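Good morning C.,

I know you're traveling, so I'll keep this short. The sequence:
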Amino acid sequence: MGKASRFKVIVSDCHLSAGRLFEGRLNPHEDFRFDGEMRDLIRHYSTGRYGTAEDGAPVEVELILAGDFLDFLNVPYHGEFEDEVTEEMAVYKAEAILRGHPMVWEAFRAFAALPGKTITYLIGNHDADLAFAAVRATLIRVWDPEGRFPSPVVRILHDTDRLHYPEGVEVRHGQQLDPGNDLDFARPTFRARKGRSILNLPWSSIYVLKIINPMKWEREWIDKVRPAKAFILFGMLLDPVFMFRFLVFSTTFFLRTRLSARGRARYSVRQFMTNFRAEARFFRNLEDEARQILDESPGVRTVIFGHTHYPMDKVYPDGKQYINTGTWTRMINMDIASWGQGIRRTFALVELMENGSRAELRQWNGESGPHSPFSA
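The tokens, ready to paste straight into the viewer:
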């Protein structure tokens, strides 16, 4: 008999933060609304044909959380969005996220308790706090069915941006291909005042903390509109005072952070103008970057990213494939192809077989018909 298939269920960009209610009031910074649906998806991929094979052996299923599944940037610390994040602050935010979504963590524990089921987490640009060992321990002890850390069935990868499978599949969050969002895995923290270790955040994360999050109190949808050009154009026409303030704050922040000592530490002055153009390209779909990986990596036939919130499943004439897992949060599309508001609970399903792999972007519909092929 041939080797049994193994499955990878890949979800990203769900942005779970502190829950609908936090610090005694309604929380506009919580973007995730589908705790029950996430629980059902996890249950589905640990039962039936994904639970036990015909010969009685457990089916191997790896749940891959491919970055930004959690959103530490959306959790204030005692009412403030601090950009000098210490380990103490990051643990506080992790505990708030755990309190905010108990149904999801119960599903994690139940999944990981079953034979053949494992959970792997890749870090994205909204969950860089996972660089702190105490944060990883806080989460893994809750997710592991026996409260262990380290855990044999739950792992958080804090020193790499990718997973590679010899069957021809590579999974990344994708932030490392997006200048301004890329993390420094070699130097995730740095020493600041009084010798404290401070999280080494990219400038775009600080922008979320200092510009986007405070302005979400006025316009909750500010970070959900695509594309950027249409957002600015319609904003100037329909909400000019707010949009003008937003543009002034954003431009000032961008220039100040790129020219600051902290910004220069990440990029030299010689690189500034080159990176300026790249970093100013908001909301990229990363298709060109995916195609480059496929061209330069002969053993890779399927590349899977998250990060962009733009779901894609594209097969090229040479048979290679780019999948983007999209997001489970609400988006407002202002381009002609996908006009309107939409929530698409998309995920990638990968089957690894003895002679290769098969991958597809799927859309979770619920118990009546659990999932279907994604349709753009």
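Safe travels,
E.
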